Amino acid sequence: MNIKGLLFDLDGVLVNTEHNHFIAWKRTAEKLGISFTEKNNELLKGVSRVDSLKAILKLGDLQVSEQEFEALLTFKNDIYLDSITALSPADLLPGVASLLLKAKEMNILCGVGSSSKNAKPILKLLGIASFFKVVVDGFGVKDPKPHPEVFLNGAAALGIMPNSILVFEDAASGIQAAKAGGFTAIGVGNPHVKESADVYINDLTEFNLEEYV
Ligand SMILES: [Mg+2]
């Protein structure tokens, strides 16, 4: 396939901070006297911070002022940010470290394309920041996924055409973004993207870079 570059989504592909988000929302809900379970948390998957809080307020049949709403968003984000400071290389998802080493050995350039505003500090905590030539994060993008902007900016920074890049994604919106940008989309660890991805793997241990270069 003559692949020259790899672009990775962050959350769900390189690391999983889903549980950190859950704990932060749970404490926010409990502050409001609303009980919040793992099952309730399903409502928030792939949902923005603002819409997540709206869903929690609805769950408790509560209304708050605009000011209080903002304060709750900050409360949640502070708990989340505090909890991710404990991330370490041990939190890398299976196969990440060996794929990054392999890519480096084969001179395949790597980048990250994530809507998270915390992408750079998280990569540092995970000990893999030096493997990426570019990190396009939530600060560098106008149109979020499924718009392809995040990956197109990544490709431009790598200096490689999209058709020579593989995008690794766990979310349906990310697969859509990759395909809209002309990339080959590798779905990772989310059975819901099995159909839409060009190739599907359960985790990165199942991926063999040598088949693509
Ligand atoms: Mg993701």
Could you characterize the architecture of this molecule?
The chain has 213 residues and is of the alpha/beta class. It has two domains: 5-15 and 89-211, Rossmann fold; 18-84, DNA polymerase, domain 1. 39% of the residues lie in helices and 12% in strands. It has eight helices and six strands; from the N terminus they run E-H-H-H-H-H-E-H-E-H-E-H-E-E. Strands 3-2-1-4-5-6 form a six-stranded parallel beta sheet. Bound molecules: magnesium ion. Residues 9, 11-13, 170-171, 174 line the site of magnesium ion.
Task: Report the major sheet.
Answer: 6 strands, parallel
Number of helices: 8
Mean pLDDT: 94
Classify the beta-strand content into a percent band: 5-15%
Strand segment tally? 6
Weakly predicted, low-confidence segments: none
Fourth-tier CATH superfamily name of the largest domain: HAD superfamily/HAD-like
Widest sheet: strand ordering: 3-2-1-4-5-6
Structural class: alpha/beta
Summarize the structure.
The protein is of the alpha/beta class and 213 residues long. The protein contains 8 helices and 6 strands.
Helix/strand layout:
Elements: E1 5-8, H1 18-31, H2 38-41, H3 49-59, H4 66-84, H5 96-105, E2 109-113, H6 119-125, E3 134-136, H7 149-158, E4 165-169, H8 172-180, E5 184-188, E6 199-201
Parallel strand pairs: 1-2, 1-4, 2-3, 4-5, 5-6
Bound molecules: magnesium ion (MG).
